[in-house]
Design a protein that fits this description.
Blueprint lengths: L3 E4 L1 H18 L6 E6 L3 H16 L4 E5 L8 H4 L18 E9 L3 H11 L6 E9 L11 E5 L6 E6 L1 H4 L3 E6 L9
Parallel strand pairs: 2-3, 2-4, 4-5, 5-6
Antiparallel strand pairs: 1-8, 7-8
Helix pairs in contact: 1-2
């Protein structure tokens, strides 16, 4: 089955502009705000949000990157495929309002692991979550504060966020991973 495109580059641009305005509205004081992108696609999304907020409010927000791979609850199952990326947070997290940024919110397990990794770095004033896509199927009691688009999906489908910085183009697609009828799995 071919990918079904759910969001175009323009859709993503508009959605990130809206989320940026929502972050500004909720966080009246921006000097204490830190945007942290979760590897891989949360990193460029956090940078784009910071650029938007800078353009809208004329304030430069610091951004960071977070790798939570060592905090995963399936570490025993994926140890052979584990690729540790860089965590780079430009300031102490103590007392900061943190916005974690990710591309897709699914079961909530990755966000739980990211919060564990973040808490090991200090004690933030608050942690908020911004995601481009919320596809449902939560296994943890986690919800996003800022959602670009809710896309209900089946478990045999995959939501793929493609960004210029990582994939050469901006789009969100849904891909059916189930084998076609009559085909072996």
């Amino acid at each position: 089955m071919a990918d079904k495109i759910l969001m175009t580059a323009e859709d993503i641009r508009r959605t990130l502009a809206r989320i940026s305005h929502e972050i500004i509205e909720r966080n009246k004081v921006l000097d204490n705000l830190l945007l942290i992108g979760i590897h891989t696609r949360g990193v460029p999304l956090a940078q784009r949000l910071a650029e938007n907020i800078n353009r809208f409010e004329k304030v430069t927000l610091r951004t960071g990157t977070l790798d939570f791979s060592r905090y995963r609850d399936d570490l025993d199952q994926c140890r052979d495929k584990l690729v540790v990326k860089n965590t780079d947070i430009p300031t102490a997290v103590d007392g900061k309002s943190i916005v974690l940024v990710d591309d897709v919110l699914y079961t909530g397990r990755s966000i739980r692991a990211a919060m564990d990794a973040l808490i090991d770095l200090g004690r933030p004033l608050s942690i908020q979550l911004a995601v481009l896509i919320d596809r449902g199927h939560r296994e943890m009691p986690i919800r996003a504060d800022y959602v670009g688009k809710n896309i209900p999906s089946a478990r045999h489908e995959e939501i793929q966020v493609r960004l210029v910085e990582t994939d050469g183009r901006d789009e969100v697609a849904i891909v059916n991973l189930a084998p076609a009828p009559g085909k072996a799995a």
